[in-house]
Amino acid sequence: MVSMQRKTPADALAAKRAKADESNTHISTDGSSAEFEFGGSFGAALLMTSFPLLMWYMWIGAYPTAKGWAIYWIFFILEAAMYCYMPGVSSVGRALKHEGGKTLPYYCSACCSFYATLTIAAVLHFTRAFPLYTLIDEFGSIMSVATLSGFLDSFIVYMQAILRGRTHRLSGSPVYDFLMGAELNPRIGILDFKMFYEVRTPWFILFLINCSVAARQYEIYGYVSAEVAEQMIITSWDMYFKELGFLLTFWNMAGVPFTYCHCALYLANHDPSEYRWNRYSLSAFAVLSNGQKNAFRHQEKGQLIKRNTFPQVPWQAIKSSKVIETDTGDNIMVDGWFAIIRKPNYAPDMSPFPWFYFIFFIIMIIHRTNRDINRCQRKNGEAWKRYEREVPYLFIPVIILWCCGIHTI
């Protein structure tokens, strides 16, 4: 029998600690599965070859140049240095069962690094040493460099894990293991490569590309159209469970920053009169977006760090969240955005233009959502069924369906 009640952070932390020993006696209490993703070795090989080819197909003249190599790797090395030396906060990850419940420390300096990166970019732009729209002018070259670098880094990460004897949960298929990864937490000192790849490389580049779109619009039209948190990732499934392989390395070095930006590139290459949005809707998206789920996980462990820095808005942490208790100690939040739909973090990205991103994103989130739901069903059992009854919608809440004239049963 599951119960639903409002709990304080202290209550949640005490409950989790009380159930820790019991949870560790279960096999696969984290909901993991030995099933192959992406269709096994064949699907892995197809994915690793077809997606880079698709990236090149969508951009004419994407030849790697010396300038492209210099831009990408100067940025990469600079961000790695900032990771280690910029001011930040320390936190700990989830307990690793294969290492006897050991938790790893994480140094989180992304906020200071982000603002430092923006400052450097602004200085280079306004001094004309490196105008931001150079990222658009050299997009094809930089994308190719990122693609080749993603393959190279993936190979290095895979081989060093084997040579150092640091492999974890290998499937026996070299092709599949190369895609999914061989080592769980590769590090040099305080530099955690998985967190670095997940946060710094993709999202910083993507943000700078968006800034370059704004710079190009201002240069052409004289104005910028309105269309234009690291520590939160520690509790994610990728950080806790997935090894660092081609999937995370290539995807974050090349896939995310150079395919998710096609919406922004559309804005750079079309007149604003073709895509005028409602400014009030854009303002609502900017104000109401938040990180409630991740704040809840940190709060549950008594590790929530409140920081007065964008994008960590003050209202992202809900006090005394409404939860559904589970037998694993990791409760399910049924509050805030997650009391309305189960995947609020995916819904805002389903923009209908340009069509590549829309189609790709739909396919990607359907696969990822099915994976997450299956894992949560295995992990939480009856509690998850209760959660699905409480929050029946995945992406679109019932109020939106009513507004669109779609009646539900």
From TrEMBL:
Keywords, sorted A to Z: Lipid biosynthesis, Lipid metabolism, Membrane, NADP, Oxidoreductase, Receptor, Steroid biosynthesis, Steroid metabolism, Sterol biosynthesis, Sterol metabolism, Transmembrane, Transmembrane helix
Compartments (UniProt record): Membrane
GO BP term (any one): ergosterol biosynthetic process
GO cellular component: endoplasmic reticulum membrane
Enzyme nomenclature, EC number: 1.3.1.71
Annotated membrane topology: Multi-pass membrane protein
Entry's transmembrane regions: 38-59, 71-92, 104-127, 139-159, 244-268, 353-370, 391-408
Catalytic activity: ergosterol + NADP(+) = ergosta-5,7,22,24(28)-tetraen-3beta-ol + NADPH + H(+)
Pfam families noted in UniProt: ERG4_ERG24
MF terms (GO), sorted A to Z: Delta24(24-1) sterol reductase activity
Oxidoreductase keyword on record: yes
Biochemical pathway: Steroid metabolism; ergosterol biosynthesis
Listed PANTHER family: DELTA(14)-STEROL REDUCTASE, DELTA(24(24(1)))-STEROL REDUCTASE ERG4
Family statement: Belongs to the ERG4/ERG24 family.
Record-given protein name: Delta(24(24(1)))-sterol reductase
